[in-house]
Amino acid sequence: MIGTICIFCLGAGVKSDQDCTKDIKDNRGKMKPWKKGARETGKYRNVFLDAGYNKADIDSKLAKAYHDVFEGPNRVYFEVGDSMAYVSDLKNHDARTEGLSYGMMVAVQLNKKDVFDRLWRWTQKYMQHQGGPRDAYFAWSVKPETGKHNSEGSASDGELYFITDLLFAANRWGNNTGINYYAEARRILDAMWSKNGSGGIMNVINVEQKKITFVPDKSGYNWTDPSYYLPAFYEVWAEYAKDGKEQFYKDCADSARVFLHRACKTSTGLNADGTEFSGVPRKQFNTISVFRFDSWRVPMNIAMDYSWYAKDKEWQKNYAVRIQNFLFCRGIDTFEDQFNIDGTLPTYILQAGGYRTLRHSIGLVATSAAASIMGTQAKSWKFIDAVWNAKLESYSDGYFDPYYDGLLYLFSLMHLSGNYQIITATK
Questions:
Q1: Is the pLDDT of residue 13 over 80?
Q2: Domain positions in the chain
């Protein structure tokens, strides 16, 4: 279609010499996603291996990514004394429930018990509220040097991850090795169910909507963030929390899947950072929410649900086609990291780390590659190649984010190598 304008480029006024909805030729052929989820089969796909990469090289790349993020000179993981550690968002000079809970997930997935225990002890001491209306919830941002809270409030995805981390730890290591992981997970869950608005504090999940809140207080109880939607985690809770709420958690998983249909409904597959429970972008700070940093996580979250449970596989495969077609149209090595959900570039660019610019961010390179787990096009191989060739290093203007870029990159490598799994209970 030489000389045409691709429908994805049209809104942005970008001329294209190809129809970006059409697939490409690749000697590896079309991708063929697995038809059943890992909870049913017990197997996890190594997409890198399917793409033709060597097993030893795959293992080495994952090990290097872990080293870079947790151990290298630009690490974001810092040990404190003999028994604690934290993960820091270096560009924002704080420690966040996001980073601590991600670090714990990495540790339990890769069987690094000491790292997990250190992170949990620090989180419990410096972030978890002990008593009061917020009891058992977590302050989402803390000064790592002193433990002083920058904010007393919670970001709901932190609690979502901590509970899942701890249930996985209980399954992997048992509860008699120094920390009763199951009891700690239940403490958060039981406290969550006790929140009824007293002191302005609410359940992490909007009970009527069966959807996760933006924050579990009255200001954020009735709207949400699509990147918090991890239906796979609710499936885990339904199986392992054993708190009598099994059907509710299954309903939350189903509700999350339906919500993602609404939030990612455009031809681009893009979603806004903040939305109403209907999926409609929310007006924030006098502007309509768009696809930005939080949104990068959505392709990977949907891919996780496909890989683990495959309960919404037809829509998920279609979603992968839409978002990868759009990003491919923008250039596999050049696509930007902030968009209006129709695919046009936003007028206002959100700054990060003192820089206000659009860039080809490794975080989005990583998560868009994870979508290839459910890919059905030859085009999806190019996203695998892109994350394989990506480097966690400074951009040309000096900006460097080993925290958010680094953790999403590491998560993506774990997913694509089959090393991000449901950790089942040992018999």
A1: no
A2: 23-77+262-422, 83-222
Query: Burial level of 49, CB count in 10 A (0-12/13-18/19+)?
Result: middle
Residues 427, 412: Cα–Cα separation, whole Å: 30
- For the CA atoms of the chain, what is the radius of gyration? 21
List the catalytic residue out of 184, 294, 401, 405: 294
Per-residue pLDDT at 229? 98
CATH entry, 23-77+262-422, from 3.30.428.10, 1.50.10.10, 3.10.105.10, 1.10.1790.10: 1.50.10.10
SS3 call for 103: helix
pTM for the full model? 0.96
Decide if 337 is catalytic: no
Residue whose token pair is 């929410």:
289
- Is 294 an active-site residue? yes
Catalytic residue among 68, 94, 98, 312: 98
Phi/psi region, residue 222 (left: phi>0; alpha: psi -120 to 50; beta: rest), is alpha
DSSP per-residue codes, 151-207 = ESS--HHHHHHHHHHHHHHHHHH-S-SS--HHHHHHHHHHHHHH-SSGGGB--SEET
Residue 273 has pLDDT above 70, yes or no: yes
